Amino acid sequence: MEHKITEMFSEETIATRICELGRQISKDYEGKEIKLICVLRGATMFYAELAKRITVPVYFDFISVSSYGNSTESGGNIAIRREPMEDIKGEHVIIVEDIIDTGNTLSTLKKLFLENGAASVKLASMLDKPDRRKVEIEGDYVGFTIPDEFVVGYGLDYAQKYRNLPYVGKIEV
Ligand code: IMP
Ligand code: MG
User: In b/e form, how buried is each residue of 53-83, taking b as 16+ CB within 10 angstroms?
Assistant: First the structure.
């Protein structure tokens, strides 16, 4: 079944905003190196574009998490399904996510990386839905703040579909 999807942010709009975020990050991390950790799978497109816009040294790593919930809502229990490949002790970590919704995923990961000895942990997210927050957490680098709508595209899925759309759109489900 195909769904009705209404564009919210075009590919060009996203690209422009990512350039701004990249510039800000490059400035904030001047003289440092960044361990850029992608939260699979939704953040992949944003991650790749953001990494290209950062001018300080960047090291890639990937993490996969699962949360117990239904297809449009993450549950509170976050399980790590795939650990980063390298130790993050002493590293300046930026966790890159597609969207901050309840905040469960990023607050869990931030806590975990700090416990594991990261020198610093900041959060970059393409989108933020603050109306839905259940735990207190804020993104350090946020692309766009959106109302409480379910969105797909540019990495984001609905039941694993629509991740490859080059724009972000609101889906009617
Ligand atoms: P949180 O742990 O509730 O902040 O949820 C974050 C995760 O929920 C994201 O990484 C997405 O996988 C998923 N999610 C939340 N809102 C949306 C949405 O509007 N579209 C697609 N996925 C979403
Ligand atoms: Mg996700």
Answer: bbeeebeebbbebebeeeeeebeeebeeeee
